[in-house]
Amino acid sequence: MSKISKPLNYISALGLIGDFIARWVMISKKDSDGKSSAPKDPFYYFLTIYMLPFAFLIIIAEAEWRRVLKYVLFLKSQAGRGIFIMFVGLLVFEEKHANDIATSITLILIGAFNLIIAWVFPAIAHFKYLKKDL
Predict the structure, then answer these.
(1) pLDDT digits (tens, 9 = 90+) for 101-125
(2) How many domains does the chain have?
(3) Dmax over Cα atoms in the chain, in whole Å?
(4) Which helix (H) or strand (E) holds 34?
(5) What is the DSSP annotation of 32-88?
């Protein structure tokens, strides 16, 4: 099952990076009057900035980079990754933009898949971390 979840988690990180790019294109886009068509909500901008670190945390967790994982221990487990990916998916949800809806639904489904794997196959999900102590 980890052969399936690892590529899905990489896809979720790539989806976040793609949504980040789409948001920056939309922020920089001007309408025919020369006004910016970007949202006025400051949370939208803060989340846009944080999308890249969130994506890199997912990539680091899948690559098992120990220097960073020792500071974010919840990403060591399959359930921790699933909850984190679902959390980011819920943060990204913006009903006014189709790319945010698609990214959010994808992240929530991938996070739920990680949680299901962690609960159905708990020994498999945690076995590789028992051998590698950080």
Answers:
(1) 999 999 999 999 999 988 887 765 5
(2) 1
(3) 61
(4) none
(5) TTS-B-----HHHHHHHHHHHHHHHHHHHHHHT-HHHHTT-GGGGSHHHHHHHHHHH
How many CB atoms within 10 Å of residue 55?
21
H or E element in which residue 96 lies: none
C-alpha dist (Å) from residue 35 to 31, 49, 98: 6, 22, 21
Q: How many other C-beta atoms can be found within 10 angstroms of the C-beta atom of residue 97?
A: 18
What are the tokens at 38? Answer: 């970007």
Q: Which domain holds residue 118?
A: 2-131
Structure tokens at 130: 């028992």
For residue 79, pLDDT beyond 60: yes
Which two tokens mark 14? 């790539």
Cross-strand bridge partners of residue 30 = 36
Choice among 25-29, 47-51, 91-95 with the minimum mean pLDDT:
25-29
The whole model's pTM is what?
0.83
Burial (0-12, 13-18, 19+ Cβ within 10 Å), 18: middle
At 77, list the tokens: 């487990």
